[in-house]
Amino acid sequence: MDKYDVVVVGAGPAGSTAAKCIAEKGFTVLLVDKDKFPRDKACGGGLPTRVLKRFPYVNDLIDSFSYGSFTHSSSMRYTLKFLRDKPLIANVLRKDFDEGLTKLAVETGAIFFQGKTVTDISIQKENAIIELDGKLKIEAKIILGCDGIRSIVAEKTHLNSKTNDICICVVQEQPMTEKEIEKYFTNKKIVHLFIKTQKIAGYGWIFPKKNHVNIGMGEFESAVNKKKERSNIKELYNDFIKMLKEKKILPKNFTPENLKGGTLPIFPLQKTYADKVMLCGDAAGFVNSITGEGIYYAMASGEIAADVALMALHAGNTTEQFLSQYQRFWMKDFGKDLKLLGRFNKRWGQDSEKIVRLLQNNKLFAKLLIGVTGGRLSISKYKFIFFLSYLFASFKDIFYKK
């Protein structure tokens, strides 16, 4: 039986980050993923710029930058135009980004098993046993579950919880010439966001990249009116594309191809650690419940879990009590923001016209909201000025409507 200090299950941004951090310190790490790389993910691929500040080594994996956004109300009557000289978001192709992160982990000393499925996990007194494909068994002192919303690690260690609070999305990443991208989205690669497009409790998006355009839409189930008849999101997506063509936001000959579906968690699990186990990224529910963005939280939680794992290995203590520090650390780092953002999730089920109108007519409120939802500002730090600016914008809106 092969033995490792740490086994990381899932080689997405969370798992690769954790594996890299641990291997750099000289401990043995096995990174396992059920897919063979390169592999794609249903994702917009828009990263908040704070990812680059915290993890500067990802700069070489960035496809392009966007320097502005247009946020449209559901009726398209109101549009908030926000342009910057500095990048608003960094764009990546998940196929290349995730593979690049795994290569960095391997370069630091991590062992990578790809195309291997974890079928069972057994937590024992001195170690943990991970079973792969029902045959190979691996022994580890610590397991990091970075294996997404349907985490086998969370399931086998009883940390998962059944919930309908998810986001269902469809997305396509399609090649487009640089000339076409500049024609339709300018040289600033303007991001388009469509609030409650096609009457969904969520939004649609366009992320123009260097030689690709990423288009998708996502609906937050937690905000859906349960009395409303369920809609087919694929059919709504076709209507969305048709609308974009009519508004000349996309070329007339654009066709939906390679459409992928996916689900995202919305709220963090109540408990993200157990004896010899910690959960990171989507497996722990670390996603912005307003936008669905999760790469920053995945990498941040992977880094924090790695730090706690290193402390545990040095101390020779991998018990649940010792690993409970992980939850305190991520809560202090980004957990307060996730908790506050979660309070606004159900607003996706409410009228969107007012909020876009408020943003369009109040620059301070617009900057704060874009900063908070885009991950450049901490909502827990700016919550009071955010609330006051909203009140001022609402008061001003009364006179605007008159």
Structure notes:
There is one protein chain. The protein has 3 domains: 2-44 and 94-163 and 268-342, FAD/NAD(P)-binding domain, CATH 3.50.50.60; 64-90 and 164-265, D-Amino Acid Oxidase, subunit A, domain 2 (D-Amino Acid Oxidase, Chain A, domain 2), CATH 3.30.9; 350-401, no CATH class. It contains 12 helices and 18 strands. The protein has helices at 13-24, 50-54, 94-107, 152-156, 178-185, 233-246, 295-315, 320-323, 325-342, 353-361, 363-373, 379-401; strands at 2-9, 29-33, 46-48, 64-66, 68-72, 79-83, 89-91, 111-114, 118-123, 128-132, 136-145, 166-175, 191-195, 202-208, 212-220, 260-265, 273-274, 277-279. The strands form 3 sheets. Strands 1, 2, 8, 9, 10, 11, 17 and 18 form an 8-stranded mixed beta sheet that branches. Helix 10 crosses helix 12 (379-401) and helix 11 (363-373) packs antiparallel against helix 12. The model has no long low-confidence stretch (mean pLDDT 91).
Question: What's the topology here?
Answer:
Layout: E1 2-9, H1 13-24, E2 29-33, E3 46-48, H2 50-54, E4 64-66, E5 68-72, E6 79-83, E7 89-91, H3 94-107, E8 111-114, E9 118-123, E10 128-132, E11 136-145, H4 152-156, E12 166-175, H5 178-185, E13 191-195, E14 202-208, E15 212-220, H6 233-246, E16 260-265, E17 273-274, E18 277-279, H7 295-315, H8 320-323, H9 325-342, H10 353-361, H11 363-373, H12 379-401
Parallel strand pairs: 1-2, 1-11, 2-8, 5-13, 11-18
Antiparallel strand pairs: 3-7, 4-7, 5-6, 9-10, 10-11, 12-15, 12-16, 13-14, 14-15, 17-18
Helix pairs in contact: 1-3, 1-7, 7-9, 10-11, 10-12, 11-12
